[in-house]
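Quick one from the shared queue. A colleague (R.T.) flagged NAD(P)H-dependent oxidoreductase as missing a structural entry in our internal table.

Convert sequence to structure tokens.
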Amino acid sequence: MSTVIENRTWRYATKKFDPTKKISADDLETLLEATRLSASSYGLQPYHVIVVSDQNVKEQLKPASWDQSQITDASHIIVFANAADFGEELVDDFVANVSETRNIPLEGLKGYSDFMKSKLIDLPVETKNSWTTKQAYIAFGNLMQAAAELKIDTCPMEGFEPEKYNEILGLNEKNLNAAVVLAVGYRSEEDATQHLPKVRKSKEELFTII
């Protein structure tokens, strides 16, 4: 079995973390860099990632997370917050970064900039919010799989109250919205879930090969 499949078989949604085990600074940096390198539409990355290790903040987030123990027991809580709305600055900032990174004059990128703006800026706010949320999920998935490569446990969590997260983390002032949460750390030996076989659709049911 290749390590690709092996690591994904090993990974599971950890229900009980060992609160005494913390992720090293080097491993955390690797996880964040893997997240930074994730693909996104046009490369715009219309989201922000909040990494929470402060126990007091985690305690505040727990009631807003249906009192799930992963929030306070995991080493880190990583919140993906999508841009609730955006204007031309999203494209302008990206194009400026491209210009600097690739040493391309800004005027040489005007056509690409205008194209992106024509596809994005006039979208309804609801559509923008949906699109930026999807982009956050791409990075979220990359982080989860990178953790599996390092044998770091995760639990993807949608069971939380975004409005309260936004308030606690000061996201409203930044025009951000908590979209999805990943608890990251190391499984407890008491977590019986780790011993259960994965339940997935068969290849025949899931895939159509044309």
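The first helix runs from residue 3 to 10.
The domain at 3-84+128-206 is CATH 3.40.109.10 (NADH Oxidase).
Added to the table.
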